[in-house]
Amino acid sequence: MAQQRVVFSVIDVIEVLTETSNPTDYLKKMRKRRGAQSFIGTNCPQVAVEGTGGKRKTLVANTQSLFRIIQSIPSRNAEPLKLWLAKVGYERVQEIENPELAAERARQYYRDLGYDDKWIETRLQSIAIRGQLTDEWKNRGVKEGTEYAILTAEISKATFGLAPTDYKQIKVYPAKTYATT
Fold this sequence. Notes:
single chain, mainly alpha, 9% strand
């Protein structure tokens, strides 16, 4: 299954964070700043999105690019997001220094979703085993992408009787979506 691509309208985000009456003009001024022109031009493609009055082409940003844009907006509305980004960044640096923190964060996340401890430990074990398996494939020269997909499909067929592509006959997956604010 192809991963969904979620993008956000740059103009809509600017409008909300700056409370400007002319977000297009604000974006033009932003793009004149050193580095912003090339960043936005490279990382924010134009996509036709559904809006009031039909489809329109607008600059969109994925989550990572959106965070970068938010960081460059001097606005009281952007400040809570900037503080959150700083907190999350700090937590990830701590997890790099002490990987057990990442495991505990994952456990807490699953607890918050309502899973019991047995399910959580099984899930974390399966993630670790999958990592060991793909490391072994990599060591043996298996190329990521198609070859990983083939091996994964074979394991799925042997274990569950169905390849991942066969699940499409059973489950309905949503089409690619483009989220706008």
